[in-house]
Design goal:
alpha/beta; 297 residues; seven-stranded mixed beta sheet; Purple Acid Phosphatase, chain A, domain 2; 14 strands; five-stranded mixed beta sheet; globular
Length: 297
């Protein structure tokens, strides 16, 4: 099995389409290919709706990012705080426009201090507009998003999440007396037991502190080290470069839709055992590239 795991897209549908097409050319038209997203499909870029269309079309397994949470909340509860997607930090107005919702139509309130008009979008109005335009298949796709997944490739198990496990949070659970007792009860750790305990760590965080892998995330120099044979794969924070640390982590967010170097990066695990990086720039003159992944770019 070939497996592609790609980083944050942020509404750049063309970059994702090009990356998927290029990856298919690399592995071959009939080769098996499983595809994962580590989240942040939407917001900021121009075509979040098109990104979700592509993911559904290509059977991409969806891991939730923090940018999907406001949409996930509306889909699962019928409610949304309009201030969240419309904040400049989230950039959800671009997502709304991709669905045909124009929040600028709601400029209706005058600031009592400056006397100028300010954008006011009520949560109730936004809920009705979303219900009018978001297709059912998009609702199901986002509603079924997961917080983590694992992919076995040769002797390595890659653990996928949006932000990754920070060193502090991972260490706290790993060294918890109950967990430590369980780990110490295994006299001869092996790949199977290491994979089990790493999975237990992700499952525990997902239930008791999901914000650690959705919002906080792993920072440079502060990535929790999983047991031998287990590697973290995450996006969330643009590091300026993608990074591959063979026995530790893979960082995939390279600023697609947000910041330099404006690349969409994927980890391609090949059926023949090779590990490649695939990249597609969002710049107009950009072309997709393939390289062995033993460095940073």
């Amino acid at each position: 099995m070939n497996t592609l795991i790609f980083g944050d897209v942020h509404g750049e549908a063309k970059a994702l389409a090009d990356l998927l097409s290029f990856t298919r050319e690399v592995v071959g038209p009939d080769a098996p290919l499983e595809i994962y997203s580590v989240g942040d499909l939407i917001d900021r870029g121009p075509d979040s709706k098109g990104v979700i269309d592509l993911c559904i079309q290509h059977g991409v397994r969806n891991l939730l990012g923090n940018h999907e949470l406001w949409l996930h909340e509306w889909i699962t509860t019928g409610k949304v705080n309009s201030k969240i997607p419309l904040s400049s930090a989230m950039g959800g107005a671009a997502t709304l426009r991709s669905y045909g919702i124009d929040p600028e139509q709601r400029v209706a309130r005058v600031d009592p201090v400056s006397g100028s008009e300010i954008l006011h979008v009520s949560s109730r109005w936004l809920e009705k507009e979303l219900d009018r335009v978001v297709p059912q298949e998009h609702r199901e796709y986002i509603a079924n998003g997961e917080l983590w997944a694992e992919v076995v490739h040769g002797d390595t198990t890659y653990f996928l999440s949006h932000g990754g496990i920070p060193k502090e949070a991972g260490t706290a659970i790993w060294n918890d007396p109950v967990v430590a007792t369980l780990r110490n009860s295994v006299p001869n750790p092996n790949p199977a037991t290491n994979r089990y305990f790493a999975g237990m760590l992700y499952e525990t965080l997902s239930k008791v502190a999901p914000q650690q892998i959705l919002w906080v995330g792993a920072k440079k120099g502060k990535v929790f080290r999983l047991p031998e044979g287990c590697v973290q794969v995450f996006g969330h924070t643009p590091w300026g470069t993608s990074e591959y640390r063979e026995d530790h982590y893979v960082a995939l967010d390279t600023g697609c839709g947000t910041s330099p170097p404006h690349r969409l990066t994927g980890l391609l695990l090949r059926e023949d055992g090779r590990v490649n990086r695939v990249q597609q720039t969002t710049l107009p003159t950009g072309r997709a590239s393939l390289s062995p992944w033993d460095d940073t770019l």
